[in-house]
Amino acid sequence: xxxxxxxxxxxxxxxxxxxxxxxxxxxxxxxxxxxxxxxxxxxxxxxxxxxxxxxxxxxxxxxxxxxxxxxxxxxxxxxxxxxxxxxxxxxxxxxxxxxxxxxxxxxxxxxxxxxxxxxxxxxxxxxxxxxxxxxxxxxxxxxxxxxxxxxxxxxxxxxxxxxxxxxxxxxxxxxxxxxxxxxxxxxxxxxxxxxxxxxxxxxxxxxxxxxxxxxxxxxxxxxxxxxxxxxxxxxxxxxxxxxxxxxxxxxxx
Length: 253
Ligand SMILES: NC(=O)c1ccc[n+]([C@@H]2O[C@H](COP(=O)([O-])OP(=O)(O)OC[C@H]3O[C@@H](n4cnc5c(N)ncnc54)[C@H](O)[C@@H]3O)[C@@H](O)[C@H]2O)c1
What we know:
Blueprint: E1 5-8, H1 14-25, E2 29-34, H2 37-49, E3 54-58, H3 64-74, E4 79-82, H4 97-125, E5 128-133, H5 146-165, E6 171-178, H6 184-197, H7 201-209, H8 221-232, E7 243-246
Parallel strand pairs: 1-2, 1-4, 2-3, 4-5, 5-6, 6-7
The structure holds nicotinamide-adenine-dinucleotide (NAD).
């Protein structure tokens, strides 16, 4: 196959941006999408300045018509990384329910929309790789994140179902499940958790975030990008419907 083109949602910040840079460095062409065009454009500009190949589009993952139109414009898409996400921290009794619904919409309905649009085209081209940015919170729970954890658990079910539906062709779908990665989403969460739990931000890092991880380290973009590159490789052609857990040993005990 010639150059593989990978569309990444939420590519204007954090993990999406980090994976975009990593995969561009490995020779993939990148379609950087984000609800904020300027941030997707900044990611694409940085990749192109470094000698890579990237284009940028505004794409709200909850908007099916806009998603269809981006796929129509971007050229053949070989890989999709469902990455866009947000967080909200509150105990269930105080959790604003419109906010709860918004998290599900962006992190569960959004990936279902993008995956549906992608599978239609991947079936026609006879090839596709779909990667969901799940979370360790797709496997286990922590307090005060009921919407996020429900969305990430749901993503595992979406992935397994689509793996069965696409097993008759060369399409795979898998979910990468990292523990904490230092991104703007997590920086904000450190402040929110300090408020909700009544502890300092340093205590949130050591006593909440890194405490359950035997390796006591944030997960890097390089580890996530390398896992995505593996899932895009021929070596992973029979891996589908799986969770790839990068959690520093969190779920061992
Ligand atoms: N940071 C972590 O520790 C961590 C751990 C596990 C999983 N994740 C997951 O990784 C993904 C990325 O998180 P991050 O930490 O890089 O966050 P981030 O806040 O740095 O980036 C999220 C991006 O998603 C975009 N976005 C938000 N709503 C959107 C929408 N409706 N349509 C399109 N784009 C939208 C934002 O504009 C932003 O650019 C999320 O799915 C998150 O759940 C993060």
